Amino acid sequence: MNYEVWEIFEKFEKAKNRKERIQILKENSQHWAMRDVLQGTFDDKVQWNLPSGAVPYTPQAEDAPTPSSLNKTHMQFKYFVSGLRESEDLLNIKRERMFVDMLESIDSRDAAILVSMINKKAPAKGLTEKIVKEALPDLIPD
Questions:
Q1: Per-residue pLDDT tens for 8-51?
Q2: Under 8 Å CB-to-CB from 138, ≥6 apart: which residues?
Q3: Is residue 142 in some structural domain?
Q4: CA 52, CA 21: separation in Å to the nearest integer?
Q5: CB 113 within 8 A of CB 123
Q6: pTM here?
Q7: What is the number of alpha carbons within 13 Å of residue 27 lying toward its C-beta?
Q8: How far apart are CA 99 and CA 139, in angstroms?
Q9: 140 found inside a domain
Q10: How far apart are the two ends of the chain, measured CA to CA in Å?
Q11: 119 half-sphere exposure, CB direction, 13 A CA radius
Q12: Count of domains observed in the chain
């Protein structure tokens, strides 16, 4: 089953110990949106071409149907990463509007994860770079 990113992190937070948390990440190792979020959060080489801090957006109502999902929109991250042509070619206002539009089109729990990601803050309680590297050793280069 292809879970939403927030569902994986919810399971991660409910895990009883480190071993279970690592196993949850391993079980979802082919979940590309989750991998992108983890890399965007913990890989120092990924720098966001967006202002840090709180993002002014209107989250979707909880459990309301959403026009999209993070599983679909994570491919747009290239527009927000510093140094990538796709990001650098955009005016700041256009790039920031695209990010807000993304946040407003997905589940509010996934939107909160993205805001954490661009601020380089762990998107789930207990989630650390060390755990990510242990569970997914190919994700973040040393």
A1: 999 999 999 999 999 999 999 999 999 999 999 999 999 999 99
A2: none
A3: no
A4: 28
A5: yes
A6: 0.94
A7: 14
A8: 24
A9: no
A10: 31
A11: 13
A12: 1
Contact 96/53 with Cβ under 8 angstroms? no
Domain that holds residue 123: 5-135
CA 29/CA 114 separation, integer angstroms: 19
The structure tokens listed for 108 are 């509010």
User: What does the chain come to in residues?
Assistant: 142
Token pair, residue 12, equals: 């991660």
What is d(CA 16, CA 47) in angstroms, rounded to the nearest whole number? 32
Residue 141 lies in a domain: no
Give the pLDDT confidence of 49-58 residue by residue, as tens digits: 999 999 999 9
**Quick check: is 43 in a domain?**
yes
Number of alpha carbons in the 13 Å side-chain half-sphere of residue 93: 0
**Residues 58-113: pLDDT tens digits?**
999 887 889 999 999 999 999 999 999 999 999 999 999 999 999 999 999 999 99
